[in-house]
Amino acid sequence: MDEFSFIKSIEQSAYSQASLVQGIGDDAAVFRQQAADIVTAKDMFVENVHFARHTMDPYHIGYKALASNLSDLAAMAAEPAFYLVGISIPPHWSMEEIDTIYKGMKDLAANYKMDLIGGDTVSGKELVISITVIGYVPTGKARYRSHASDGDIVFATGTLGDSQAGLHMLTNAGEYIDSDYFIKRHQLPSPRVLFALALQDISRLCLNDISDGIASEAHEIAEASNVTIYLNDEDLPVHSSFKQFEAALQDKWKLFGGEDYEIVGTVPKENWAQVQDAAAQLNLRVTNIGYVATNSRLGQVFLKKKNGKIEQLEKKGYNHLSR
Questions:
Q1: Up-side HSE of residue 259: CA atoms within 13 Å toward CB?
Q2: Quick one: 150 and 54 in the same domain?
Q3: Same domain, 105 and 171
Q4: pLDDT, tens digit, for every residue of 25-73?
Q5: Residues near 144 by Cβ (< 8 Å), separated by ≥ 6?
Q6: Global pTM value
Q7: Among 311, 296, 285, CA closest to 230
Q8: CA distance 168 to 13
């Protein structure tokens, strides 16, 4: 299959977004939106950096690559609309496998009526997938890391450390409890788009997606908002089977493990019930894990241990440029 035949094969036969004027077929796509702010994000997935063939099937690769981007839109409380895919295809990947990668993306996109409106295809030495997503948010309603304030409740959705636990199971043979659950959380994560959209009535809200570990994401909020964040170690939510792993791994994965794609946020105390109600309607776990303060340690994050000891939490997590 040549490049043009491949582009034809992934082209949608119909589009879902009414704002789309022109999709695939010209040099660029055209969409028109006047009633909302436009939010865009971009992530890249690189073979043997973000995924490996022995832990991820082609379908999982496509699904997860788009999920990562959708999690960024969720953190901004944006409703997904479009996505573009640039892909570098090496000779050792068959076109059937590439088709399956796109199917993973298409199946996830269908949950949000997203349209594929373009991209680029090249040959290369390794598989690289670069996705750009575009979404809409009501004017002035985007959620920023700088919106945390003194006295806010800090909360997290779902459970932490699941993805790294799943990866551990895939790469370390053994007998594990609830292995299907943890592996699915690694291969097919659930971006919390609907949860973020359900919070639009709250006037002030800070959200951040947990892609590089909650320690890193909490620091980003503390730094952007110029506040201090205190997290309660015993309140950090984990799956009931998480205790099967040694304590050091539990601490590492729940604090610094990446790719859970949950949401950490801050909200005024008077709006906490709305957050709980939104999560309950989606059958989603949400947990009060700490609070925001303003003191002499602005931009820092601290962890309150069960024994009452307070430790400064390092800004650690997955970092591509660390050496």
A1: 25
A2: no
A3: no
A4: 766 778 778 789 999 999 999 999 889 989 999 999 999 999 999 999 9
A5: 76, 206, 224
A6: 0.90
A7: 311
A8: 40
